[in-house]
Write a structure and sequence with these properties.
single chain, mainly alpha, Serine Threonine Protein Phosphatase 5, Tetratricopeptide repeat, 23 helices
Length: 441
């Protein structure tokens, strides 16, 4: 992304260079966007006496430029090559030569010959006594060409030289330098320069570009400065609202253990329809459960399944079923837990399904489900499963089966006391039922 940005910037600058090649000798000449408002430092060298651009040379350059604008690069190059031939070159002064090399550089760039373009621009600044503005503009373009060719250190060196010639470089130049440092993994210097660029724009009441904020965000995140990264993300959410910024901000609040804000950001993204991945909706459901809002967790999962966004996996159905169970929505929990159990390789989910059936007073289904889970294996607490089985049989009036299930559960010391209490209760209830039947007959 950064390389393409630099490439686009370089093309803009080069196109402008070609378009104004003949205007460099007159006041008010346009230069590239990146240096358009820069003021050069006072030239401390001997005062330059720039030679004039003679009319006959101007006419030939104008002809070459017209052909270049018509994309007749071969025709344009033929004229320029003739002008710098052995005989022709002797007739040109340094400023005229600089203009010829300048247009030649653009032709090379247009043919994607970046190395050739760079060589011609080096020839431009090698000419003595060219206008200072022309040298400044060309040096900036040289730095861009190095970046286009991914020669990062050379580009940085050229850009630093350009900075030395400017009293007030603008924000775009600082960003370009930051991108160069980023590429050579000098993240401290990259951050320093992109912060400068952002600060310059903000102090002038301008909105920095989205990619500037993103570069700063990455650099803050790399140094684990989550507070600064969050500040950037919150700014991006305001001015460049996109799904990725809501989700990333939520994630960072999670890193800071600030679950209320983490959930709030995810809720905002959800309400805008940004959450369209299974992992995002599952995360949202877990956040709701953590916030003790199981109904909303179940609703998110239910809609996610309906919209074919949540993956058709046992653990996702289990999450939905558990959420509905906690919300006391047994009728909604049962179908989710049924799917979860059917897709599981172990019996644990059948036991959990049995619990849900028991809560829903579906005692026969509860007993069958627990039996299936125990038979399938992989149950974490068989003793607790047998307690559920015993309660299911008790409610069905099958007291012998209930006592057997409780006895089996009591073999585990963790459930021994509870099992004994249930056995006593089953026996007393059975005796009460017998006495009632005697009274009736």
């Amino acid at each position: 992304m950064i390389v393409s940005f630099i490439r686009a910037s370089a093309f803009t600058a080069l196109a402008l260079c070609a378009a104004v090649v003949l205007n460099q000798a007159v006041p008010g000449a346009v230069i590239s966007e990146a240096v358009a408002q820069d003021k050069p430092k006072k030239d401390t060298r001997e005062t330059r006496r720039t030679p004039a651009l003679r009319n006959k040379v101007y006419e030939r350059l104008a002809e070459a430029q017209t052909l270049a604008e018509a994309k007749d690069y071969a025709g344009s190059a033929e004229i320029l090559n003739d002008m710098i031939s052995v005989d022709g070159k002797k007739a040109l002064n340094s400023y005229e030569l600089a203009n010829v090399y300048n247009l030649h550089a653009f032709l090379s760039y247009a043919r994607e010959d970046y190395a050739g373009s760079l060589r011609y621009y080096e020839q431009v600044i090698a000419q003595p006594d060219i206008p200072l503005a022309m040298e400044i503009n060309t040096r900036f373009t040289i730095s861009q060409l190095y970046f286009v060719q991914e020669q990062w250190q050379q580009g940085i060196d050229a850009l630093l030289m350009w900075f030395e010639m400017n009293e007030k470089p603008n924000a775009t130049a600082y960003v370009l330098l930051a991108q160069g440092y980023y590429q050579i993994k000098r993240y401290d210097l990259a951050l320093e320069n992109v912060e400068t660029a952002i600060g310059m724009h903000e102090s002038e009441g301008k909105l920095p570009k989205e990619q500037w904020y993103n570069l700063a965000r990455f650099l803050y995140f790399d140094k684990e400065d989550f507070d600064s990264a969050l500040d950037v993300l919150n700014t991006l959410i305001i001015y460049y609202p996109k799904k990725q910024y809501w989700v990333q901000a939520s994630h960072l609040y999670g890193e800071k253990k600030d679950e209320p804000r983490q959930l709030a950001l995810m809720e905002a993204a959800y309400e805008q329809g940004f959450l369209d991945r299974s992992s995002e909706l599952v995360t949202m459901a877990y956040l709701y459960l953590s916030a003790e809002a199981p109904y909303f967790a179940g609703s998110v999962m239910q809609k996610g399944f309906a919209d074919d966004l949540v993956d058709d996996k046992s653990k996702n159905y289990e999450l939905a079923g558990s959420a509905w169970a906690q919300a006391r929505e047994v009728s909604k929990s049962i179908p989710m837990m049924e799917k979860a159990a059917a897709k599981s390789d172990e019996g644990e989910l059948y036991v959990r399904l049995g619990n849900v059936y028991l809560d829903g007073d579906q005692f026969s289904k509860a007993a069958d489900s627990v039996q299936k889970g125990l038979k399938k294996g992989g149950v974490k607490r068989p003793d607790q499963a047998r307690l559920v089985l015993g309660m299911s049989y008790f409610n069905l009036g099958e007291y012998d089966k209930a006592r057997k299930a409780f006895r089996d559960a009591g073999k585990d010391e963790r459930s021994e006391k509870y099992a004994r209490q249930w056995i006593a209760y089953v026996t007393s209830e059975e005796e009460r039922q017998i006495e009632l039947e005697k009274d009736l007959f």
